[in-house]
Backbone:
């Protein structure tokens, strides 16, 4: 299997925060400092966003309402908000808030697609298609009027609080990011139907090829993740054009769905017949429609069994985009035809743009991921993606750190924002805000910290930073990174990289340093910590 993982060239990023106005609240009559407030749950809310709105802890709200599972709240239910600091809840609109059964007319805005419109109003793509008799779900246009049955999750315009540092061509000094308060849906679980949107979730990347699938499932169940990701090597399964061998992919999907986790498939790896240069294993597809046909076939075969598809990985590196111009416009050409192919057979599938390698760039071997992301937006990214992929690796820097507050004990891999987990996330968010794409979530399709502690090997050149991270730090950093991602409000599912690559590759391979299981399948400290996180 071809892997992308981490990369040798690494540098680059910016910062921002967006604060969304809280949703409508119905307060009990009384004094200006009531002992309790009644809050009606709106679509897309969860206990965390509600607790942030009122300055009351999640536990306090759960206790006041006898809630056993803090991850589940029902839209339309009334919650008692116990006495505590209140962040000036907004006054109700003079016009009544529409109920889910009301009919709303929505005018399509630049960058919108049916997925995002459905997400905004708490409805489904299929329902919008039905109400508007749409024959082509990808053919909506700016200014078009759509009939919507539902109510918007938020009609307030987000107020961005942005601190933009003076930037040079390569190095950007990043201030401490402003905390984010945003309406984030609770993670969904696939049953017989796929929900229209997903909020924050705990995920992990795994491989089951040539391994004991039952053992892998047992480990995934121990982790209790919401999401699981598997890379699908196109070149492995379509060695002859038009002849796809689904047998192994069927086994992968069947195995993963037995965990009851949502599935993300990352599709990469060009077959020899489809390469620009047949000898280049990292070649981009010569014909983007060939790749689109493959991912479309996956989406048609697996339907709602697979929740999401990531289209390629790290295309800002020549290592994974050989033979084609290295720029964001070129990648969006691939994304556009792939998006159309997937949505044509499964409009509910989530299409995630490729996670980029956090890196500087010379324009030949790599392009700075921030520059590349801006190029993607200029080429129309917003209209052909449902989520923005990111790979915010932290190298040897704690997830709370921002550039360039250097630890005196670490004298490398810390002189640029691209080496910092939090900087990468906030810098992507800044670019999304700049392109009026604030309603879209960042999906962290790879992240983590590597450590070679207790491994009898030295890391390969470019990966020396794994010697600076202990096994305990690796575990602590992962736990904290999940907590940070959840708190930001603009992050969707996060996929820790990786569960078991030490069982796939020799210990000398750099991918083993990130593995949660050792070469014989025993847990490293990071596995134990991850399994203990309340999800």
Residues:
């Amino acid at each position: 299997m071809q892997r992308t993982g981490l990369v040798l060239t690494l540098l680059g990023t910016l910062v921002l925060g967006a604060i969304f106005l809280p949703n409508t609240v119905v307060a009990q009559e009384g004094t200006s400092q009531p002992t309790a407030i009644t809050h009606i749950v709106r679509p897309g809310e969860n206990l965390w966003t509600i607790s942030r709105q009122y300055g009351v802890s999640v536990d306090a709200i759960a206790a006041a309402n006898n809630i056993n599972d803090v991850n589940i709240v029902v839209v339309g239910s009334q919650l008692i908000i116990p006495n505590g600091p209140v962040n000036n809840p907004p006054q109700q609109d003079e016009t009544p808030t529409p109920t889910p059964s009301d009919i709303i007319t929505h005018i399509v805005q630049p960058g919108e697609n049916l997925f995002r419109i459905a997400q905004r109003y708490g409805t489904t793509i299929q329902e919008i298609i039905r109400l508007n008799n749409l024959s082509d779900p990808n053919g909506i246009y700016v200014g078009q009027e759509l009939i919507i049955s539902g109510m918007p999750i938020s009609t307030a315009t987000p107020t961005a609080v942005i601190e933009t540092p003076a930037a040079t061509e390569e190095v950007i000094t990043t201030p401490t990011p402003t905390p984010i308060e945003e309406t984030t849906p609770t993670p969904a679980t696939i049953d017989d139907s796929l929900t229209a949107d997903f909020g924050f979730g705990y995920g992990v990347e795994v491989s089951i090829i040539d391994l004991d699938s039952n053992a892998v499932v047992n480990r995934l169940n121990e982790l209790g993740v919401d999401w699981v990701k598997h890379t699908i090597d196109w070149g492995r399964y379509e060695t002859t054009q038009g002849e796809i061998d689904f047998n192994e992919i069927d086994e992968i999907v069947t195995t993963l769905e037995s965990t009851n986790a949502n599935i993300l498939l990352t599709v990469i790896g060009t077959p020899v017949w489809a390469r620009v240069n047949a000898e280049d294993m990292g070649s981009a597809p010569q014909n983007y429609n060939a790749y689109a046909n493959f991912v479309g076939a996956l989406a048609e075969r697996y339907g709602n069994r697979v929740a999401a598809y990531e289209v390629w990985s790290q295309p800002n590196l020549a290592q994974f985009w050989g033979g084609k111009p290295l720029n964001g416009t070129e990648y969006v050409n691939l994304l556009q035809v792939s998006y159309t192919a997937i949505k044509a057979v499964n409009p509910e599938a989530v299409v995630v743009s490729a996670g980029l390698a956090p890196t500087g760039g010379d324009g030949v071997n790599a392009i700075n991921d921030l520059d590349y992301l801006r190029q993607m937006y200029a080429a129309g990214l917003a209209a052909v993606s449902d989520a923005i992929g990111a790979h915010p690796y932290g190298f040897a820097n704690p997830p709370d750190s921002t550039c360039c507050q250097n630890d005196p004990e670490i004298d490398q891999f810390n002189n640029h924002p691209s080496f910092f987990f939090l900087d990468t996330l906030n810098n992507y968010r800044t670019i999304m805000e700049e392109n009026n794409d604030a309603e879209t979530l960042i999906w962290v399709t790879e992240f983590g910290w590597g450590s070679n502690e207790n491994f009898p090997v030295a890391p390969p050149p470019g990966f020396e930073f794994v010697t600076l991270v202990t096994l305990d730090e690796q575990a602590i950093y992962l736990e904290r990174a999940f907590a940070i991602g959840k708190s930001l409000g603009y992050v969707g599912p996060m996929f820790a990289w990786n569960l078991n690559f030490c069982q796939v590759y020799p210990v000398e391979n750099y991918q083993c340093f990130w593995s949660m299981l050792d070469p014989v399948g025993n847990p490293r400290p990071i596995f134990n910590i991850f399994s203990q996180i309340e999800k």
